[in-house]
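To whoever is covering the structure queue this week,

Two jobs came back overnight. Logging them here so there's a record in the thread.

Job A:
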Amino acid sequence: MLLKHLEGLQKMKNGEEPGPPIAQLLGIEITGLEKGMVTLEMEASEKLHNPMGTLHGGVLCDLSDLAMGYAFVGTLADDELFTTVEIKLNFLKPIWEGKLRAEGKIIKKGSSTGLVECHVYDKKGSLVSHSTSTCMILKGNADGKRFKK
């Protein structure tokens, strides 16, 4: 069944459930959602700057990782989770402040891995970054959380 994960994302989008802690910390919200695709938005501000005075690259990576992860998890069966095994991000222009929009979508999903991409745009619609991620499906975990060892 492809219900639990996608339904959970829809509840976050509708404000019925909070997003994960990192999304709350960075003010990232789901603004568009369909199976295999998601759109997120966040407000970049000075509080997220690096020492050089622009948006810290890790924030763009977090935004992109969430967009790709949400796009991927929304296609998984109820007893499946996933983990990111690789992420690559190209920074294309600096950002100081303003609304950012991240569009994550699945490029290819197999039975054990998937390839996902994300484009992040600034408030003018100009491409800020492009990223790809390889995700590995973890089977047999219906509780929705990874186990601590």
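Job B:
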Amino acid sequence: MTKSYSRAAGSTGEPSAAVAARVAEARERQRVRLEPVGCRTNAEVPGSVLRTSLPRPEGVDLLEATMTRGLLSLRGLDKVLRLAWTIADLNGADRPRLGHVRAAIALRRGEDQAGVVS
């Protein structure tokens, strides 16, 4: 059985071409930013580089406090940072903002993050 995936009437989703263009721009942004550290994408960046060599995202204090309370491991912090950078790249930001970090936390927890990014 073949499934048909079409946009529902009244849907506000982006056309595939627009999404593809945004992804290509985000990939290029990552490539340029990460070239000096020998990586091409956020997924490839070692945690130590995320925490020390890239611009500090807004809201990272919130993540560090959560880690200090034992609610987030260092590995979890790195995953949230990678995701926040990706969200920022897709939104055309030069670095993650607080809304990007909150959205990354929500996605990591499996929560609906609609409206979190500002």
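Note for Job B: Residues 44 and 99 are 23 Å apart (CA to CA).

Please reply-all if you pick these up so we don't duplicate work.
Q.
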